Amino acid sequence: MARCFGQVRVTSADVRDKPAIDNAYLTSAEDRLVAAKGLRLTREIMCEFAGANQEVLPGPELTTDEELAKAAEQVGTSIFHPVGTCAMGDVVDSSLGVNGVQGLKVCDASVMPRITSGNTNTPTMAIAEILAGMLEEEWRHNRTKT
Ligand SMILES: Cc1cc2nc3c(=O)[nH]c(=O)nc-3n(C[C@H](O)[C@H](O)[C@H](O)COP(=O)(O)OP(=O)(O)OC[C@H]3O[C@@H](n4cnc5c(N)ncnc54)[C@H](O)[C@@H]3O)c2cc1C
């Protein structure tokens, strides 16, 4: 299934100007299906295992994938973990160099090709550790050559 990613775009040549951020939440069919399935599973857990007898939100009348995805749009939040706007494979290579631009590397959460299953801070630090190791190795290699 095709995935849609959000975008962060520069709005001017002045670095002090804020970028335009479009998270594109729930715009891909896959994300909408996952949201619908998530709400259905929550409903099942609450009714069958937690013994809740009345659903308040999103409401028992919403049953189709599209109705549930629409409900997810209204109540969903991002929990602040945006990733992937400079995804490895698309924008950067496996050593975090920007494809087609010599000497420019990206090292932050934007290089993750997909969101991690847990929170993003530690994986971001791991990416930084790995790049630091690669740069150190490169530096040592160059030093022994001279
Ligand atoms: C409210 C909130 C709560 C979070 N809670 C958690 C949590 O509990 N656990 C967890 O794992 N993750 C959490 N995260 C996510 C985590 O903070 C991020 O995944 C992580 O910080 C991403 O690191 P980064 O280096 O990509 O970006 P950032 O940490 O955002 O670093 C970007 C840096 O670039 C600087 N910068 C921006 N523009 C410029 C410019 N023009 N010139 C120079 N510098 C610039 C900024 O000042 C900033 O220091 C949370 C995020 C938010 C917003």
UniProtKB/TrEMBL annotation:
Family: Belongs to the GMC oxidoreductase family.
Record protein name field: Glucose-methanol-choline oxidoreductase C-terminal domain-containing protein
PANTHER family in UniProt: CHOLINE DEHYDROGENASE, MITOCHONDRIAL (PTHR11552:SF147), GLUCOSE-METHANOL-CHOLINE GMC OXIDOREDUCTASE (PTHR11552)
InterPro entries xref list: FAD/NAD-bd_sf, GMC_OxRdtase, GMC_OxRtase_C
Species this protein is from: Tetraparma gracilis
TM annotation in the entry: none
Highest rank taxon of the organism: Eukaryota
Domain Glucose-methanol-choline oxidoreductase C-terminal: 6-128
Native organism taxonomy: Eukaryota, Sar, Stramenopiles, Ochrophyta, Bolidophyceae
